Amino acid sequence: MNFEKSIEQLKARTRHVRKLVTQKDWRVEKDRVLKCTDADMVFTALLEGCTPQQVASLLMIRDQKVQSQMNPSCKSFQIITTIQKYPLIHTQVQIGVPLVADRDFLFLSNVVHHRTNKIIICNCSVDASEAQNVITEKTSAVRAQMHHSAWIIQGEGDGGVRVYYACDIDMNGWLPHSLTRNASSAMSAQIQYLSNYVWH
C-alpha cells in the first residue's frame, strides 16, 4: 500500500497543530473551550501529579475497551496495519439518533516528542485517492473526514501537565444541532477520564 500523499498531509497537519498552542487570538467559550479559527476547536485542561509521558502513554493505548472508556461513542477501533512508522486505524463512532447514520474514520496517527517536554499525537484521515486501496469491513456508516484530531501534551514548570485537544473534523452530512452542541461536554468528560486515570 502506498500512502505517500496521506503521510505528507499528516506531517503538515502535525506542524499546524503544534502552532495552535502559541496563538494569541483564542476566544474562550464556556470554561474549557478555546476557539482559534473557524476550523479549529481547541479544548484545554490542567492535569496535576503526572508527567507528559504518562498522559501520552494512556492516549496511545490502541485497545477497543480503553478507547470506549475514553470516548463512549466509540463503537469499534482497529489498527489495520502500520505504514512506515504510522499506524493506520479504522474507527466507528455511534451517533445514537434515529435515521442518522453512524460515522467512521480511516486515519494515520503520528507521535512527535519534543525536547521542550512536549508530546504531540496527531491523527489525520487518509487521502480519498489512497483510501480506496484499504479493505475494511463493510458498514452502513458514513465516512467522515478528520482533517486533524490531535493531543498536545505540555509539561508545566510546577509538575503538572497542560493538555490541549485540537480538532478540525468534517462529519460529511447533516447532524442534529444537539450533537454538535454537546461536543464540549464530551471532550470535558474525556479529559476528566484522563485526570481520574493518572490519579488512580
Structural account:
The protein has 200 residues and is α+β, with helices and mostly antiparallel strands. It has helices at 4-20, 52-59, 64-70, 128-131, 177-181, 183-199, and strands at 27-29, 33-35, 41-47, 74-83, 86-93, 103-114, 118-125, 142-143, 145-155, 161-170. Strands 1, 2, 3, 4, 5, 6, 7, 8, 9 and 10 form a 10-stranded mixed beta sheet that branches. A hairpin with a 5-residue loop joins strand 2 and strand 3. It is globular. The termini are far apart. The model has no long low-confidence stretch (mean pLDDT 81).
Give keywords:
single chain, 200 residues, alpha+beta, Alpha-D-Glucose-1,6-Bisphosphate, Chain A, domain 4, 10-stranded mixed sheet, 10 strands
- Spatial shape: globular
Helical residue percent band: 25-40%
Quote the CATH topology: Alpha-D-Glucose-1,6-Bisphosphate, Chain A, domain 4
Helix-and-strand structural type: alpha+beta
Q: Indicate the mean pLDDT.
A: 81
Using only CA atoms, what is the Rg? 17 Å
- In DSSP terms (H or I, runs of 4 or more residues), the helix count works out at 6
The poorly predicted ranges are none
Main sheet attributes: strand count, strand direction, barrel closure: 10 strands, mixed
Distance between the termini: 41 Å
